[in-house]
Amino acid sequence: MLENLFNLIKENSTDSVINNPVISNEENDAVVADATHSVADGLQGVLAGGGLQSVLSLFNNNNNSEGNGLLSNPIVSNIISSFTNKLTDNHGIASDQAAGIASSLIPSVLSSLVNRTNDANNSNFNIDSIISSLTGGGNS
């Protein structure tokens, strides 16, 4: 699941990471990896705290059609905050720039993840394998 998530983030990171002059080309993969871990760790933390319904509601198409509803979701806010901290701590990016990058990339990625998970024709992403891999049940 992490590899699929990494690739999904890389697909969505063209403007916010790859073409961003604040992030050197040498750091692109490391930044994408930090975003991947921020998303996975954020979802895993919610699940570990008994928040299965919260995670499942995140994947409800009705709330996420444009990705705008994601910004008001506390799970998404925590992931954005975590990624912002990684950008400042690991890559020396100023906090306001890091917050802008995270606020742009994370909702876009989660919206794509939701759409692909809800797409019956996409076997790379399904909610069962996502939950299973995040709770230690497998690496699908």
- Determine the number of helices (DSSP H or I, runs of at least 4 residues): 7
End-to-end Cα distance, whole Å, is 5 Å
Beta fraction: under 5%
Using only C-alpha atoms, the radius of gyration works out to 14 Å
- Tell me the helix content: 55-70%
What is the succession of H and E elements? HHHHHHH
Query: Any idea how many domains?
Result: 1
Largest sheet, if any? none
Mean pLDDT score: 90
Class of secondary structure makeup:
mainly alpha
Shape descriptor reads globular
Poorly predicted tracts of residues? none
Number of strands: 0
Describe the 3D structure.
Helix 1 crosses helix 6. The protein has one domain (2-134). The longest helix has 23 residues, at 95-117. It is an all-alpha fold. It is 66% helix and 0% strand.
Question: What's the quick description here?
Answer:
This protein is 66% helix and 0% strand.
Outline the fold blueprint.
Elements: H1 2-12, H2 14-18, H3 28-48, H4 52-58, H5 74-91, H6 95-117, H7 127-134
Attribute tags:
single chain, 140 residues, mainly alpha, 66% helix, globular
